[in-house]
């Protein structure tokens, strides 16, 4: 088969919200600011959406070579917590859940 399907855009939004929240909560934690963009989970949820990559770029992520291989990294110098908080406000409702919720697909293994 070899055909890769792309998740619903809402799943990408949910993952972006998680990434943003994790960085806001622990901005000094480099692992929270590093994404394996070549992994299947990322590719199914965000990598297959041009706008997902664009959002990460707007957040300050760049492709870097790390000890674990090529990764998307938000360096401490590029980190703008106030920007991330504004982005999160745009994506999330008052009860801190994504503005639209889609039931989790049990066949999708992140």
Task: Summarize the structure in words.
The chain contains four helices and three strands; from the N terminus they run αβααββα. The protein is an alpha+beta fold and 110 residues long. The radius of gyration is 14 Å and the shape is globular.
List keywords for this structure.
3 strands; 4 helices; single chain
Distance between the termini: 20 Å
Order of helices and strands: HEHHEEH
Q: What quaternary form is this? A: single chain
* Overall spatial form: globular
How many helices? Answer: 4
Q: What portion of residues is helical? A: 40-55%
β-strand number = 3
Low-confidence segments, given as residue ranges, are: none
Main sheet record: 3 strands, antiparallel
Please report which band the strand proportion falls in: under 5%, 5-15%, 15-25%, 25-35%, 35-45% or over 45%: 5-15%
Q: What's the overall average pLDDT, rounded?
A: 81
Strand order of the largest sheet: 1-3-2
Q: Name the structural class.
A: alpha+beta
Radius of gyration: 14 Å
């Amino acid at each position: 088969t070899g055909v890769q399907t792309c998740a619903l855009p809402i799943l990408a939004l949910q993952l972006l919200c998680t990434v943003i929240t994790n960085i806001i909560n622990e901005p000094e934690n480099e692992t929270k600011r590093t994404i394996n963009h070549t992994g299947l989970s990322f590719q199914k949820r965000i990598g297959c959406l041009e706008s997902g990559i664009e959002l990460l770029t707007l957040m300050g992520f760049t492709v870097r070579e790390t000890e674990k291989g090529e990764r998307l990294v938000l360096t401490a110098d590029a980190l703008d917590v106030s920007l991330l908080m504004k982005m999160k406000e745009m994506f999330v409702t008052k009860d801190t859940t994504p503005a639209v919720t889609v039931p989790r697909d049990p066949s999708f293994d992140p």
